[in-house]
Automatic annotation (TrEMBL):
<protein>
    <submittedName>
        <fullName>Esterase family protein</fullName>
    </submittedName>
</protein>
<dbReference type="InterPro" id="IPR000801">
    <property type="entry name" value="Esterase-like"/>
</dbReference>
<dbReference type="InterPro" id="IPR029058">
    <property type="entry name" value="AB_hydrolase_fold"/>
</dbReference>
<dbReference type="Pfam" id="PF00756">
    <property type="entry name" value="Esterase"/>
</dbReference>
<dbReference type="InterPro" id="IPR050583">
    <property type="entry name" value="Mycobacterial_A85_antigen"/>
</dbReference>
Amino acid sequence: MAFIDCHFYSDSLGVSASMYVILPQAAQNQIGLASAVYGVKHPTLYLLHGLSDDHTIWMRRTSIERYASKLGIAVVMPAVNRSFYTDMASGPKYWTFISEELPALARSFFPLAEDRELNYVAGLSMGGYGAMKLALSHPDRFAAAASLSGALDISDRALNFPDDFKLIYDDVSKIKGSGNDLFYLADQLSGSTRQSPMLYQCCGTEDFLYEDNIRFRDYCRELGMDLTYEEEPGEHEWGYWDRKIQNVLNWLPLPARP
């Protein structure tokens, strides 16, 4: 794999932004690392961070490079600060950045596939919310989305982070039934003719977000969405996420390599 620490200017944010990118490499003699590639353009996983983290965290806390290498997929890990992947009421437009600008820039910099069937998104905690928001808002762009211990009931979470949410949403009473509400997005998608992405969701039973996850799981099941759900004993911590990101990678609907 190739590892790139990428810094670039963002028009939507108005400042320089950062992302880590790992790219497949067809290495023949690298010791201890299995390598695979699909072709000229790589299947891509956008991997999102949580509230207290940044774009470096997946590389620091897991072996994501080693896990992705044998599958032959690229992984894009952007930084979005404490934005909840939203155009902030009192701050930068992080939803525009993550949903529109970042994919276009990443594809201009690196050989990343544009096809829906070769694009996926995943994240933990706040990033789990961001992953589901991206896939449910743009099902034409992502074949699959995964949430690890996601903050999926955002209107309920607003009570826990009042300072952040005031800056992000201004009036938190407007979250429910809006494009920031995953329950609303799931409902809108299920009632449309658009193809729904495959969804994966996991949460530890001792996680403080467990009840949020149960509510979202049950709602998606009621709508008949293609949801894979896993739970086991676990808390909101990296040992759990390091194990589960491996499950996510194995679950992704990657096409057969040529």
